[in-house]
Amino acid sequence: MDRPLRQKIGLFFDTMRKNAYGIRPYLVRDGKVHPVAILIPGGGYRRVCTTIEGRPLARELNAMGIHAVVLYYRVREKGRYPAPQEDLARAVRELFAKAKRWKLDMTGYSVWGASAGGHLAASFGTESMGWKHFDLPRPGAMVLLYPVVTMGEKAHQGSRDHLLGPDPSPETVYRTSVETQITEAYPPTFLWWGEDDDCVDPENSKMLMAALDANGVSCVCTEYKNTGHGVGLGKGLPCEGWLQKAVAFWEMYRK
């Protein structure tokens, strides 16, 4: 089966999944304690695309000795802000509660997000929408793939409409635009995007990069040529190998 058809079938089943909170663990089955990465797939806050930005990333992390947990968060009408942020906070609490049973080393856990899932992940790195707001330990690192960042002029319209509704107030738009909420307490961040992204304007990532730099946040930011949107692991593309680089970055800050 060719890749585009596989993706279409995967998107169909992702869309048909129950629109509710849930987590799916992908654990390293060797009886040992391992660090954990929380994976948040994209989907425009309309669906959760695990076939592209969930399961494949989790399996790759497992092969590197890392537990991975894929988050299913509420979307569409059920997912109006701050419901997805509450779902992510719930997942973090659940993982801390299950750490002993699942052999999770939650020290410096990482949060990974792609596209609209990147907005959700990135918002968790802020004090106003994320870890501090929910009274949770700060992540050791954020890993963001071609993320939706702003809800302002350069917003991905579908993500904005599904998250904020048809007529959000200027205050809500400002509060949920991640680039406006960055402080020096933001976690170290590994960020990448494709130059040829015709879905989420690359200005989203560039705005975030500028905000991280302005606040002295440790970050690695990369724009890949000849790379579009929703490519996941990016096999055969200039971005291939980004996951291994992200893990190496995370390891510098995990403890």
Explain what the structure shows.
This protein has a 7-stranded mixed β-sheet with strand order 1-3-2-4-5-6-7, sandwiched between helices. Helix content is 37%, strand content 18%. It has helices spanning 3-16, 50-53, 55-63, 83-97, 99-102, 116-124, 157-164, 170-176, 203-214, 242-253; strands spanning 22-26, 34-40, 67-72, 104-114, 141-145, 189-194, 219-224. It is of the alpha/beta class. Strand 6 (189-194), helix 9 (203-214) and strand 7 (219-224) form a beta-alpha-beta unit. The chain is built from 10 helices and 7 strands. Helix 4 (83-97) packs across helix 6.
Briefly summarize what is shown.
This protein has helices spanning 3-16, 50-53, 55-63, 83-97, 99-102, 116-124, 157-164, 170-176, 203-214, 242-253, and strands at residues 22-26, 34-40, 67-72, 104-114, 141-145, 189-194, 219-224. With 255 residues, it is α/β, with parallel strands linked by helices.
SSE order = HEEHHEHHEHEHHEHEH
Total helical elements: 10
Output the strand order for the largest sheet.
Answer: 1-3-2-4-5-6-7
**Largest sheet data:** 7 strands, mixed
Distance between the termini: 43 Å
